[in-house]
Design goal:
It contains 6 helices and no strands. The radius of gyration is 30 Å and the shape is extended. It has helices spanning about 1-20, 20-55, 60-70, 75-90, 95-120, 130-140.
Length: about 160
């Protein structure tokens, strides 16, 4: 009879492994959810990368040149660091300098884009002129996309 109990125990243990406990089922479901979320995250990143590659592939040669110039353009980190330290009055971490450099690049890009729109509205051709940049800054300030420095701060820093 000992032999009969042995195989029945093996069947019971194999049946237990086929049917997970409620705790294990919750863990498996959670792991599947995490795996699905990671897949979704990867596919979104891959989709955006693929869309960027399609966009760049559709550029004309002039647009490719402009895009390469934009990608390579940077602000000198030493200049940004000096400016930030003069404003803060203390040393500034390198990560903050890199972040501020990126923010400045986006800021200038928005102004240049608005200046191009202003130039096109006036039906002019050629390079941007100071009047286009002044008009762009005026419009961006009016739409509150650029802070207006003429007004006093509600909570001054100093």
């Amino acid at each position: 009879m000992g032999k009969k109990r042995g195989p029945s125990k093996e069947k019971d243990s194999s049946q237990e492994s086929e049917q997970p406990s409620p705790k294990k089922a919750k863990l498996d479901a959670t792991e599947q959810d995490v795996a699905v979320e990671e897949d979704v995250g990867r596919t979104k990143a891959e989709d955006s990368m693929e869309n960027l590659q399609l966009l760049v592939a559709a550029f004309s040669s002039d647009q490719e040149d402009q895009y390469e110039i934009f990608r390579r353009s940077t602000f000198q980190k030493s200049t940004i660091k000096k400016l930030m330290q003069s404003l803060v009055g203390n040393t500034v971490p390198q990560n903050a300098v890199i972040a501020m450099s990126g923010i400045a690049k986006v800021y200038v890009g928005e102004i240049v884009e608005a200046a191009c729109v202003a130039r096109d509205r006036s039906r002019e051709e050629g390079p941007l002129q100071p009047k286009h940049i002044r008009e762009a800054v005026r419009k961006l300030r009016k739409s509150n996309k650029i802070p207006n420095s003429r007004y006093k701060a509600v909570f001054p820093l100093r």
